[in-house]
Structure formats: structure tokens, C-alpha cells
Amino acid sequence: MNVANREMLSFPEPTVTVKTHPVNWDDLGEETGARVLEIGGRKLMGCFYLCPMFTISCSQPTPSFFRKARRCQAAWCRTMSQVLGSSNRRRAARRANPIERQLLFTGILIVNGNHIDPREWSAFGRRCVRKSRKEVCHG
Known about the structure:
Layout: H1 3-8, E1 17-20, H2 28-41, E2 47-50, E3 54-58, H3 63-84, H4 86-95, H5 98-106, E4 108-111, E5 114-116, H6 121-130
Antiparallel strand pairs: 1-3, 2-3, 2-4, 4-5
Helix pairs in contact: 3-4, 4-5
């Protein structure tokens, strides 16, 4: 197969699913924690971003998945700021331990059953989307 024909082949982009959840303001971490345990405990393959308001999933790491995860993370932070006030949200996030901070404020990223530390999300996303579709990014 020559180069021109190879370039014409295209693969469909995996579907990114965004599910919105009602927010339980009395216990923000409980429902998010249950979703995290279900996905992480079963070592499900694929990419997942979870926060109290959203669950985003895709069969593999793609630019679209990371874009949607970041948009949902920003939407969740805006909602928290509207309810708590920006300074109160930031203060509460600083006081929370790392797991609480992720469950309640930043969200949790799981790729192929592995938790990705929030400080590594950007680098991990860049590394994954550079890989060819034949490779799987394992976290």
C-alpha cells in the first residue's frame, strides 16, 4: 500500500460519553466515591473522569476525551464557586486531604484501571494522544 492510500485510511474516533449526575450537596463525596470504586475496583479498561457532577468515559485516551474532561472539570469548579463562593471553594480545597480534594473539587482520572495523579494529568494526556491508535496507554 502506498503512502497516499495509507493517508486516506481513517479510523473513527472513539465515542466520548458524558453523563451528568444530580449533585448531593449534603454528601458530595459519597456518590463520586461509589462510582470511583466501581470503576477502579473492577480495573475497567478505558478512560474515566469522575467528579460529583459528571462521569466522562471513552474506550481509549483521545484528545476529545481530555478536552471534555477539562471542560467538565471547569464546569464543576464554576458550580462549586457559585454555591460556595470562589474564595471559600479555594480555601476548602486547600484544607482537604488529597483524596477528599480529588473527590470533591478536582475530580478523579482513571485510565485502564490506574488512578492518575492530578499533577500528572497534562503530561499524561499529551503522552497518550501522541501514541498511535494501535498502542494502548497504560498510565
